[in-house]
Amino acid sequence: MMKKNVLKFNGKKTETTSTTATAFKEEVIEWEMRPGGMLVQRRSNNSDVTVTQNLRVRVAYGSSRYEISVNPHATFGELKKLLTEETGLQPGEQRVICRGKERENGEYLDMCGVKDRSKVILIEDPESKEKRFMQMRKNAKIQAAHRLINDVSTEIDKLVEQVSAIEKSIGNGKKVAELQITTLIEILIRQAVKLDNIVSAEGDACSQKNLQGQRVQKCVETLDLLKVANTKIKPVIVTAKWETFDPLPATTTSWELFD
């Protein structure tokens, strides 16, 4: 007799035949791709199969303890996904130790001897931990740069108001003390130096730094022009005009004598 085997993969059937003494029989084998790229035989989904109860896996992560409910036929890669919700660590940042050995994502819990209330150890991947630490330092520097830029921006706002006041006075033909203009220019230059010393500015902080630098430059250029215009204004000379009065007429006083 000829025996026909039917292999089913991704919905397609492949037939093979072999000579056998038994009666003709058709077998269907289904395959599935598991996390990690492992090809395994699909587990039966027949209704007469007893439903598998989830395992309660105890996970130790530093000083924290978690109890994760997971299917015993799940992989360690699937366990890591569940641990992400608890620890915040991405699967690629996790290393799981079970029975004294680090487990790969494609390994199955039941095949590695994981039973109900079994204990596994979770540690953060050293390289990921170093990257996280470096990112935290970078973020701290960026935040510090934002604070420094905001402080300089506040000072520049005040100086802009003073520049506007001087511009208004000179525009109205009122001469301003030259020392007032030169002092204001010096203060603006000091703010520009503060901005240049902020070296950790990145992204939005860098844009804000450049914007404030442009404001300082514009104010200095405006004051330079006002300084020239101020020299062309002639000072107003105020002369005092005194009011004259006619002299009082001479008077004679008669005195009365008493005995």
List keywords for this structure.
single chain; about 260 residues; alpha+beta; five-stranded mixed sheet; four-stranded mixed sheet; 4 helices; about 40% helix
Secondary structure layout plus pairing:
Elements: E1 2-9, E2 12-19, E3 26-34, E4 38-41, E5 55-61, E6 64-70, H1 76-87, E7 94-98, E8 101-102, E9 119-124, H2 126-171, H3 178-196, H4 204-231
Parallel strand pairs: 1-3, 5-9
Antiparallel strand pairs: 1-2, 3-4, 5-6, 7-8, 7-9
Helix pairs in contact: 2-3, 2-4, 3-4
Question: Summary?
Answer:
By secondary structure, the protein is α+β, with helices and mostly antiparallel strands.
- The unreliable regions are 1-10, 12-27
Spatial strand order of the main sheet: 6-5-9-7-8
What is the string of SSEs from the N terminus onward?
EEEEEEHEEEHHH
Number of helices: 4
Measured between the Cα atoms of the first and last residue, the distance is 182 Å
Helix content: 40-55%
Q: State Rg.
A: 45 Å
The class by helix and strand makeup works out as alpha+beta
What's the average pLDDT?
80
DSSP summary, beta strand count: 9
Oligomer: single chain
**What gross morphology would you assign?**
rod-shaped
User: What fraction of residues sit in β-strands?
Assistant: 15-25%
Profile the largest sheet.
5 strands, mixed
